[in-house]
Amino acid sequence: MTEADPLVDFSGIKKSYGPFEAVKALDLTIGRGEFVAIMGPSGCGKTTSLRMLAGLETPTAGTIRIDGKAMNNVSVHDRDTPLVWQSLALFPFLNVKENVEFGLKMRGVPASERDARAMLWLDRMGLKGFETRRIDDLSGGQRQRVALARSLVTEPQMLLLDEPLSALDAHLVIRMQGVLTKLQKELGITFVYVTHSQSEAFAMADRVVIMGQGEIAQIGTPQEIFRAPKNRFVAEFVGRNNILEGTVTGGIIIIDGTEYPLPGATEGHTEIVVAADRMEIHDTPPSTAAIPADFVSEEFAGTGIICYFEGPGGEELKAQVNETQLAALSPEPGQRFWLSWSPDAAHVMED
Hints:
Elements: E1 6-17, E2 20-31, E3 35-39, H1 46-54, E4 61-66, E5 69-70, E6 83-84, H2 96-106, H3 111-124, H4 140-152, E7 158-162, H5 170-187, E8 190-194, H6 198-204, E9 207-212, E10 215-220, H7 222-227, H8 232-238, E11 241-249, E12 252-255, E13 258-261, E14 268-275, E15 280-282, E16 291-300, E17 305-310, E18 316-321, H9 323-329, E19 336-340, E20 346-348
Parallel strand pairs: 3-8, 3-9, 6-7, 7-8
Antiparallel strand pairs: 1-2, 1-4, 4-5, 9-10, 11-12, 11-14, 12-13, 14-20, 15-19, 16-17, 16-19, 17-18
Helix pairs in contact: 2-3, 2-4, 3-4
């Protein structure tokens, strides 16, 4: 379930379309039974990487191995890497059961066995009784489960998923996250999941791969990515982070002339990250060092409220509070506040 037991290995992978480099340099190992999510902005190379793993694209350079076998010249049909598409790609001219059986039929599995395995998976996905339904008569969540059943009925060692929940309503996304996580743990197969949604990746994946401009920017657990972004790109992509620059000397960082404790940091110019939920808001100057900032606006974010401020240099600063804290502050646009953080809330970025 870790890199020590690898199933997939991208080694020196590059993919170009004429002069455009979609993937510049990809070295990534995915463990057997691991749930890996690949995230990044549009055009970062995440979907191209998934398509190369599926066999739908051929690398320009490098080697992709599955279970130790080089796959560059292996056809899609011989890879056993089913892909659940964003569009689901279900066949409207087949009913639910026929859709689920399709892959087995293409493999020449006898009708009786196809029937038994399809019914098993329909039951497992909560679709018993829907066998003869037309695809157009199903809800979005039901179609999603049919697509999963069709991919998993062949009992693959790995499942690829390309933005599979992006077309669903918010309440169905949460439900399907639970379905996917439970399935992956029960089956013990490898999931490689491409998404633009941080909430999906952080809720389900064992490890998250952040890509930018065709390269890996950071790999880590959801907690590592969220709390310890490696560089400015990751910190900005994750969002709700305050990026502050200063000079470190003698265990302090000097930001705009004010000293803040930063024990253990390497001396010299440094960028630190303070997450919005670890930033404290004061309506009067505190006894500890703090940044004076003017309130701009607020945004309801489900689990809390993000307050936006403008710092002394015009920079945007963020702090997350709950409804009780917001009511106590009663901020008005342009009102002066002071923002502070504890030393252990500051993360020093590597790059």
